[in-house]
Design goal:
Two copies of one chain form a homodimer.
Chain A (H helix, E strand, L loop, with lengths): L13 E5 L2 E5 L6 E3 L1 H28 L11 H4 L4
Antiparallel strand pairs in A: 1-2, 2-3
Chain lengths: 82, 82
């Protein structure tokens, strides 16, 4: 893919990749661009992190014989991208 | 701020705002643009969610007299934007 230009500054953005997710970052204004596929990967990672926390909390509740109602706190962050 | 053009498609992006965070979304390719300030708000929200989960897990550990070592799972997601 050719170099993407920052929609704000018009300068070429720098590709940054970590854990298989690629974002383009503007070296001038620090804005970031995520294409749909990369955004989905990032959201999936965030959901996975949430699942891990919820699973551990659920285990504690179970141990105490209490029902656990998932918090889904990350939803309020991820909602932005629905 | 004038309408931003998608760096990929060149079409005008649509501003979407939720919980005080504003992103520009390309109606054509679904890519998203976050300026630095909006990205920081989003990262702060994600960190806050993580803090809430960790605090509850820590409370359970304390109840059992065990030390809790923070997991910091969200770090692996947020690291991308360092």
């Amino acid at each position: 893919m050719p170099l993407l230009l920052c929609p704000h500054c018009g300068v070429g953005m720098k590709e940054v990749e970590r854990r298989g997710v690629l974002v383009d970052v503007c070296p001038q204004c620090g804005g970031v661009w995520l294409d749909r596929g990369e955004l989905e990967k990032l959201l999936a990672e965030a959901r996975e992190v949430e699942r891990a926390y919820e699973a551990e909390l659920e285990a504690y509740h179970r141990k105490e014989g209490k029902a656990y109602r998932k918090k889904g706190l990350m939803k309020r962050v991820l909602d932005l991208f629905d």
